[in-house]
TrEMBL record:
Domain of life: Eukaryota
Gene3D superfamilies registered for this protein in UniProt: Glutaredoxin (3.40.30.10)
Biological classification of the source: Eukaryota, Fungi, Dikarya, Ascomycota, Pezizomycotina
Domain Ribosomal protein/NADH dehydrogenase, first and last residues per copy: 49-149
Descriptive protein name: Ribosomal protein/NADH dehydrogenase domain-containing protein
Coiled coil: none
Compositional bias per record (Basic and acidic residues), positions renumbered to this chain: 160-176
Subcellular locations according to the entry: Mitochondrion
Broad class of the protein's primary localization: mitochondrion
Spans annotated as Disordered: 149-176
Amino acid sequence: MVNLFKRMRKLKTLLNIQVGTGAATLPTVANASKEFPAITRLHLTYARKIYGGHQGARHFWRNCLPRLKYYNPAIPMTVRQTEEQEGPAALTIYFAERASNAASLLSAKDVTDKHAPAPGEAEQAAVLDVKNLDYKDIWAKVKNMTGAQEIQPTPEQESELQKLEQLRQQSDKDRARIAAIRQAKADQERMLQEARGEVEKLRQL
C-alpha cells in the first residue's frame, strides 16, 4: 500500500507538470514564423511576499514556468525574487531578432526590470507588466505575445487525472471517517471520566 501511494504521488507530480496552464511549446528557430519569431529566453522578477500585486507573478512561477520548461527545455528561464514589494512584477520575453507585433502592442512602455539580463545583439526584449494580474491572465498575455501552442492532455493523461481525483475524494472520506472515530473515542473517554467522577463523589457522601 505504501508503494502504491508513493507511485501515485510521483504520477501526480509528473501530471502536474505535463498538464495544465502553461503546458505549451514556444516558437523556436526551427518553427518560427513572421508573425511569431523564435523565443530565446524568459526572465521573471517579482517580490518574495505576495502583497502589493505580486501574488499572480508568484503563482505563474509556481504553476506555469515548470510546465513551460518541461516542454521547452532548451529555452533558458530565469527567476529573480526580490525584497522590493513596491518594485515591479515583470516578465521579460526575449525574441530572436525582433519582437512579435503582439508583443510590441502588449509590452509595458513604462516598466523596467533592472534584474532582467540585457538582450543580446541578436535579441529584442519585451517587458510584460504582470503586477496585480492573476497567473491565468499572465499566461493569456504570454500566449498572445509569443504564439505559444498549448499541449492538450492525452486520453491516458485524462484517465490518470480522473483516477487521481477519485483517490483524492476517497482520501477525504477516509480522513473524515477516521476523524469521526477518534472524536467518538474521545467523547466516550470523556463520558467515562465524568462517570468515574460522579461515582467517586457518591462514595464520599
